[in-house]
Amino acid sequence: MSARVRAPELRGRGWLNTGGRELTLADLRGKIVIADFWTFCCINCLHVLDELRPLEEKYADVLVVIGVHSPKFEHEKDPVALADAVERYGVHHPVLDDPELDMWQQYAARAWPTLAVIDPEGYVVATMAGEGHAEGLARLIDDLVATHEAKGTLHRGDGPYVPPAEPQTTLRFPGKLLVGPDGTLLVSDSARHRVVELAADGETLLRTIGTGSRGRVDGTADTATFSEPQGLCLLPPHVAEVAGYDLVVADTVNHLLRGVRLSSGEVVTVAGTGRQWRSTVDDHAHDALSVDLSSPWDLAWYDDKVVIAMAGIHQLWWFDPIKRTAGMYAGTTVEALRDGPLAETWLAQPSGLAVSADGRRLWVADSESSAIRYVEDDVMGTVVGQGLFDFGHVDGPAAQALLQHPLGVCALPDGSVLIADTYNGAVRRYDPATDEVSTVATELAEPSDLALTPEGAVLVMESAGHRITRLAPGALSAVGASTVDGPRHRTERKPTDLAAGEVTLDVIFTPAPGQTLDETYGPSTRLMVSASPPELLVEGAGTSTELSRRLVLSDSVTEGVLQVTAQAATCDADVEHAACHLTRQDWGIPVRVATGSATRLPLVLRGLDAG
C-alpha cells in the first residue's frame, strides 16, 4: 500500500452555507469528509448531488460533504450565480468557491465531477470520477466508521452546514414555460418542485399542481409531487383524448415523464422507472414504464411523438403517448459535437427544444457545447457552436458566432429561432436567411426558456430573476437587434503533455468493495475515444471493450482535446438477488503534444483503493 497522503487545505474565494464561517480541515477533524468537485452547468455533477443526498441523511452524524465549486464557464465564476445555483439545486452542505480551480489542481481532479474521500485523521483515502458511486461510498463510509471508532478518532455530532434564509417569491428558479390552450401560462417552478398556472400577465397565480415538496407521488394536484421539473409539452387534442392527459412534464431529477390532465390537475407517471439510465445504447422501442430515463430536460411534439432532450446521457429520445412506448432518437451518449445521421451524432447536454412553424425542423439548444443544433430529414446539423470548450458573446456570421450555455430555443414564424443564451444573460436570434446571429436583449437573469404568444409577443423566462418578462416591442426588428463583438472564451485547464507518436491510454477501474465485474450480457467494459480536432489522433479512435488502447498522436497537431468515455458493469458479489451497476465517465482532456513528453495516459474510472 502506498504512503498515506494528507488532504490539501481547503482554500478559496469564500464559503456558502456556513453562516459566514470559513472552514479548515482542522475544523472537520474527526469527521469523514467527501470533497465533491463540481460545476453547476454539468449534468453529471447534478446527478452526484442527488446521489449524495441519501448518504448525507444516513450518515448525518459522521459525514460532512464539502462542495468545491470549480467552474467551467465564465458565468459560473460569478459568486452571485454560484449562490443562486446552490439554492436552485437544493445543495444542503457547505460549498467552497474555487473560481481559479486552485483546489481542483491541488486534488489532481481531471473531470467533473470528482470525489475525494478524506478520513477523520485528514488523509485522502479514495478518489473517484464520474457518477454512480453511492453503493461503494456507503461501504467505504461503513469501513471508515468502524476503523476510526475503534481508534477513538471518530467524532459524532452535527456538521457545519448552516441553511440560508428562505426567500419569498411566487416562483423560484422556474425552468420552462408554454402558453396554454386558453392563453394562460404553464410554468415548471423547478426549485419549488411543482407546475404552476399563471394568468396571461405572467404574474397572477391561478393554481398549483404539486405540493411543492420534493417527491415522486402520483395523484391529485394537491397531493402529487415532483423533483425539479423542467420541460413541458402540450399534446395535440386528438392524442390527449386517447392518452387521458393533456400535458407532459419532464420530471427531471426523478428521471420520469409525468402526464397532467389539465381539467382536474391529476398527475400520473407515463414514462420511466425512476431509476437513472445506465445501460447500453439500442434502437428498440420499449414499454415506456419499464425503461430508465436520465434527467429529461425539455420536451417537444415533433414527428408525431414527444421528443425528449435527455440531458443526462447527451441524447434525444422519443415517447409515444398512444402506444405507450419510448426509445432513443438521436445520439450515441458520447458528449461532444458531431453532426450526421441521428444514430451517429454526438450531443452535449441538450436542454431546449422547439419546432419550426412548418413542423419540418426541430431546433435543439445543446448547452454544454454552447451550440444550436437542428434535426431535419433524419439528420442533425449545427448552425452555431464550435465545441465543448469554446464559448462567448459574439454576433455576426453563424460560423464565428459564440454563445454561452444556452438552455432554451423558440422558433419564430419567419423561420428564424430565438435563443435563451443563459450564461450570457441574453436573448439571441439566428436567421437562416442571412446565416447571421444577433442580440435582441441583454441584462437578463439566466434566461432559460422563451415562448411566443398568439398575439406575437415574446415571453422570456428569467430563471434566476424568478419571473417572466416580455421582450420590448420592436426588439426583433432589424432596428431593435444589435451586433455584439464581446469576449471569446475557452475553458482553460492545465493541459496534459503527451508525446507525438505512440501513447498508451489506460483506464484504471477498481470495482467498489463487495462488487465484481459482470459479463452476464457480454463484455463488462467499454471504451470510446475521439479527438478534437480529429486530426490529433492518427490511430486509436473508436470503440472497444478493452480499457487499454494504443493511440498514435499526430506530430503536426500541437494541441487539442482527447474525448474519452469509459464504462464498466459490476454486480454485488456473493449476494442473493445481487444488484448490478454501471459506472460511466466522460473526460475531455486538453492535450499538448510536445517532444519528450509522457507516452502513457492513465485515467481512473473508479478509485476506491487507498491513496
Automatic annotation (TrEMBL):
Listed InterPro entries: 6-blade_b-propeller_TolB-like (IPR011042), NHL2_NHL_rpt_dom (IPR045302), NHL_repeat (IPR001258), Thioredoxin-like_fold (IPR012336), Thioredoxin-like_sf (IPR036249), Thioredoxin_domain (IPR013766)
Domain Thioredoxin: 1-146
Transmembrane domains' residue ranges: none
Keywords, sorted A to Z: Repeat
Protein name, as recorded: Redoxin domain-containing protein
Pfam families xrefs: NHL (PF01436), Thioredoxin_8 (PF13905)
SUPFAM superfamilies noted in UniProt: NHL repeat, Thioredoxin-like
